[in-house]
Amino acid sequence: MTPTPRPTRSPHTVLRIAAVLAVVALAVTGCAGGAGAALTASAHGTSPTTSPTTSPAADAPTPDPIDWSECGPGLDCATVEVPLEYTNPEGEQISLAVMRHRATDPEQRIGSLFINAGGPGVPASDLIKYIDPGSETSTFSPDVVARFDVVGMDPRGVGESDAVRCLTDEQRAEQAAEDRDPSIPGGKPLGRLLQDARTFTQGCVTHQDRAFLASLSTDNVARDLDQVRAAIGEEQITFYGASYGTVVGPMYATLFPDRVRQMVIDAPVDTDLWQNDPLRLLDEVARSNEETLDLWFETCRTEGVEACPFGDGDPEAAFDTLIADLEAEPLQVPPAEGLTPGGVLDGAMALEAVRAAAGARALWPSLTTGLLDAQQGDGTFLHFLLTHVTVAPFGGPFATLQEPHTAVRCVDWPALRNLGEHHAAAREITARGERLGSRAAYSALNCARWPAENKDRFTDELTGAGAPPILVVGGRVDNVSPYHWAEAMTERLENAVLLTREGVGHTSYRTSGPCIDDAVDAALIDGVLPAEGTVCDAVPAGTTRQPAAPGGK
């Protein structure tokens, strides 16, 4: 792993690390943000695969042509009006924020590449802003940026599209500061968790009306995307989606298969679990988090103390001792400019930081250094990881994403009002005795109290029937989307090819070397998919490209 004596603390490195963490941030409670963002929109007919009660905007009015305004170098911004509910297309309208990065080679332009930034809850515009055609760390390759207008729509309830807010800054800070106990399911006594859920859901209806909250489903997002497509004037779209964006993509391909030119989905969600068994889905995320941490332990142990000195050959024992010591006597972390506002680091907080860093292979050396520092009484770097993933009450990634993240999940998923189901799921997770299992238990409890019913929840299987062949990219070790989800997605889609990435990480495009990047570019640009069974080897540590920093956070 070759850890450095201390984590590099230049502003550039801080932003790069924060970018990686923004991608994995929402794995805390479910599916994480990915490396993309999605846009599309509709105005025309109904797919034959669509349920009569969930018609994809067959009668929605054709939107006005989009009115772009320049909003940065190579960037244009606009808003598009769409129906609040497609069952009443002439009724209340809502505004969606749209951003595009113009193709750098207009003469060779193919069309619009719509991206979905995952989460759910990650604003597409955050990734569009940081496209840099001349940078190896850019979100999309120079070839893709040359040939496509890259278009991002902040989905309804996300980012500039009237982002869902359920807590005040003070409430968020108070909940984040409360002591968690890694030895009990959910980290707090159940009564306190239920009280938090009531505070959260009551805040949601205080700040938004119930009709808006009920409308935040993925099928409506797909219809919104098609409205944007129509407003731009494209007959078909090319689409890249990562993590939760791999629910949006197949939804769009199922509702509007004839409007798909090409599609790539990276780090897939199991859409059957997403639609029908979300507690099992969260359980499988918890397992993936634990498996990734176990692989870090194994790698640390096998590479030896010169590469990974933490634990002197027994990292598991050293880790358990450190977490117990931090829980018994938390570290006071002073403010460090550019890293952390300071605070307290206890055992539960350290587990959260480790969970995030273990899921990003590029952070393993820094994770080793952070653990060594904590052993010596310096919790600065672990607190930095924590602050930029889970706590961040005043503007960090998780603080601004968790509320729309929860809102989308609760309207997409079947009703989870039976507390017995949550108890059973929590018992199953904690019975395994895993180091990271406590936080995952009860992670869907807000949905048990969700105040807005989605009366026409879309339940059709997402097969993409009639769409062109779809490229599915799955990582062999992924702390959020286990590899068997990619296999299941490939089987479920009517026409798909699976590309496998060896190595560790959530999402693969632009983070895993030229084998993945070239295959994705070929699919997006030329519609050429790799042969069945193609596997891309893991790239050497330290050579992977990392995504640019979303939102500069």
TrEMBL record:
Peptidase S33 tripeptidyl aminopeptidase-like C-terminal domain boundaries: 437-536
Source domain of life: Bacteria
Composition-biased stretches (Basic and acidic residues): 171-182
Keywords per UniProt: Hydrolase, Signal
Signal peptide extent: 1-37
PROSITE patterns in alphabetical order: PROKAR_LIPOPROTEIN
Biased composition (Low complexity): 40-61
Record's keyword annotation contains Phosphoprotein: no
Annotated ranges, domain AB hydrolase-1: 143-286
Stretch list, region Disordered: 40-68, 171-190
UniProt family annotation: Belongs to the peptidase S33 family.
Name this polypeptide is given: Pimeloyl-ACP methyl ester carboxylesterase
